[in-house]
């Protein structure tokens, strides 16, 4: 029986090295362009974030006034902050009150407007841009100063409230109302979470609402049983972002209070007090310790939100949720 060969045998003088079976370049050669493009971000993260964080952590254990060399004091800044400084705890209470009120109201307004925009046919793009505009403008010092003028004694808001029989004498000078002026300024900037809510609402199938309507479910029942569960990942996303941003509020508090947290420390937010201790009183070591306490607190609260989200956030593509 004869055999058939499908190719000529290799020659003895053929010195060409064999090519890799895959035909690809070595892994190291394929990765270096990625590192080149990532290098600006990596350098920026190192120089603008990681190194300043390390320096701030060191300064939090020192007595530093911006002019003299830092002097190591160990845990004294943290001890003074937690046990000897009543204004520190006043700033913590004011910030927590602001977060607890402002974040739910802002998300509620954002979701309500997003649902209204979803039902619109024509003009949705215009209204979406119009409602988003305050999110771009509201963080500026100019808008904060205008807000202060509106809610000050003799401002437009005071005149409107006086006309309907509500006499406040101006929110800015009232220790019981000043913080709520900052809350309303934050709620007015609901455009960013509104856009995210609108994107999430558009992903919910209309068939779900049609089936619920055929079963006799009203609008409220549809909202509770369909919209809220299907939108829960988006609610969780907005909640985490808004909570972190609210703990860092500074510009509205600085402008509305005149930079001193008044009246009677009613607008002494955490970041405003940090600024006062660091740049007004030149206690930069103490301010650095406050910054790290804020980082730890926000991290713990964020971790709690992630842990508790397992019981109320529904993901449609996962079983057993």
TrEMBL record:
Span of domain ABC transmembrane type-1: 92-305
CDD domains for this protein: TM_PBP2 (cd06261)
Pfam families, A to Z: BPD_transp_1
Recorded topology in the membrane: Multi-pass membrane protein
Region (Disordered): 1-27
UniProt keyword annotation of Phosphoprotein present: no
Sequence intervals crossing the membrane: 34-59, 96-117, 129-150, 177-201, 222-241, 284-306
InterPro entries: ABC_transporter_permease, MetI-like, MetI-like_sf
Compartments, as annotated in UniProt: Cell membrane
KW Membrane (keyword) present: yes
Keywords: Cell membrane, Membrane, Transmembrane, Transmembrane helix, Transport
Protein name: Sugar ABC transporter permease
Family: Belongs to the binding-protein-dependent transport system permease family.
């Amino acid at each position: 029986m004869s055999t058939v060969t499908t190719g000529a045998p290799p020659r003895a003088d053929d010195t060409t090295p064999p090519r890799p079976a895959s035909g690809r370049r070595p892994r190291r050669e394929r990765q270096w362009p990625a590192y080149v493009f990532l290098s600006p971000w990596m350098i920026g993260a190192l120089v603008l974030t990681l190194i300043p964080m390390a320096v701030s952590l060191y300064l939090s254990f020192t007595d530093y006034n911006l002019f003299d060399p830092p002097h190591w004091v160990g845990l004294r800044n943290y001890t003074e902050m937690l046990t000897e400084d009543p204004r520190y705890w006043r700033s913590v209470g004011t910030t927590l009150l602001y977060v607890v009120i402002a974040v739910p109201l802002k998300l509620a307004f954002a979701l309500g407007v997003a649902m209204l925009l979803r039902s619109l046919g024509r003009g949705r793009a215009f209204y979406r841009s119009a409602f988003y505009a305050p999110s771009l403008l509201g963080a500026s010092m100019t808008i904060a100063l205008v807000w202060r003028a509106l809610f000050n004694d003799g401002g437009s808001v005071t005149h409107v409230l006086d006309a309907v029989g509500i006499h406040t004498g101006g929110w800015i000078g009232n220790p019981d109302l000043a913080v709520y002026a900052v809350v309303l300024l934050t709620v007015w900037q609901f455009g960013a979470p509104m856009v995210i809510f609108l994107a999430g609402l558009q992903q919910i199938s209309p068939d779900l609402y049609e089936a619920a309507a055929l079963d006799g479910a009203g609008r409220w029942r549809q909202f509770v049983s369909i919209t809220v569960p299907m939108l829960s990942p988006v609610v969780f996303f907005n909640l985490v972002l808004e909570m972190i941003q609210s703990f860092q509020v500074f510009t509205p508090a600085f402008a509305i209070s005149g930079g001193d947290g008044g009246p009677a420390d009613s607008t002494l937010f955490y970041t405003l007090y940090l600024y006062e201790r660091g740049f007004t009183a030149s206690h930069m070591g103490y301010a650095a310790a406050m910054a790290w306490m804020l980082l730890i607190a926000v991290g713990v609260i964020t971790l709690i939100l992630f842990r508790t989200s397992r019981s109320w956030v529904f993901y449609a593509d996962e079983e057993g949720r």
